[in-house]
Design goal:
The protein is an alpha+beta fold. Helix content is 16%, strand content 35%. The strands form two sheets. The chain has an eight-stranded mixed β-sheet with strand order 2-3-4-1-13-16-15-14. The chain has an eight-stranded mixed β-sheet with strand order 6-7-8-5-9-12-11-10, covered by helices on one side. It is globular, with a radius of gyration of 18 Å. It comes from Pseudooceanicola spongiae.
Length: 310
Amino acid sequence: MALNINGLHHVTSIASDAQENSDFFTKSLGLRRVKKTVNFDSPDTYHLYYGDEAGSPGSVMTYFPFRNAGRGRPGVGEVSETQFSIPKGTVGYWSERLGNRGVSGLKETEVFGEKHLRFKGPDGDGFSLVEVADDTRAGWTGAGVSDAEAVRGFRGATLRLRDGAATGELLTFMGYQKVDTQGNVTRYGVNDGNGADFVDVETLHGASFAQQGAGSVHHIAFSVKDRAVQLEVRKALMDTGYQVTPVIDRDYFWAIYFRTPGGVLFEVATDEPGFDRDESPAKLGTALKLPKQHERMRKQIEAYLDPIKD
């Protein structure tokens, strides 16, 4: 049976500097910072979330900015590129905007019939802006970006693997269907998703494995409606032989994690309760929010973290 996956939920990566990371996503890409909190397991490190106005599932890029983290080494066994949706005809606007801000690696290309603008993040992260004609999601109009050009959320992501067959079978089990193959890249898509509908699998036989660091994706998360569906997904994965974590409360969603055959860490996250559970919609991402187990250390945490200027 196909699992009730709605597309991507979020993508979480590693950075080396919190201020640089925040400036890039809010001032260059024009996204909204929807949450400023800390890493559950390392509360001396921020966990920053960027997305649309509400931080809707399928729009949120999140980061652990470990201070002075060394650069990751690209390779197989990782998410190599995160793709954002932009309106049709806006690649030129974004090429000029990002170029004026010193963004590196800018390159226009076409993949699966869609126009892409590829570029690198501050730590060498792989990104692509993809022109999409029928994306009805509302963009966040921050940092001087109008609604006519604003990022709509994710389009999808690319996994770079030595062998994509087993991961392709997993994606099919999760409800994705094979859409097309172009060279060594196969696209999988989910029907009636949240807009972040595609996972591309690039196969590079014999390539070296990636080494995680700044600029690397830590994990990629898939969206499910609620905890009941999440438990169904967890059982189905475990019945198939995957080692899946218990459900973990991440304050703004519940999460389960498992490692894929290609080495990529997958998460399945609920769309509930959302980022406004502890901040009003108008104030999202402004105050430092701490997981309840770390609240008693607020003074020490605030003293250690570098302030982020908006």
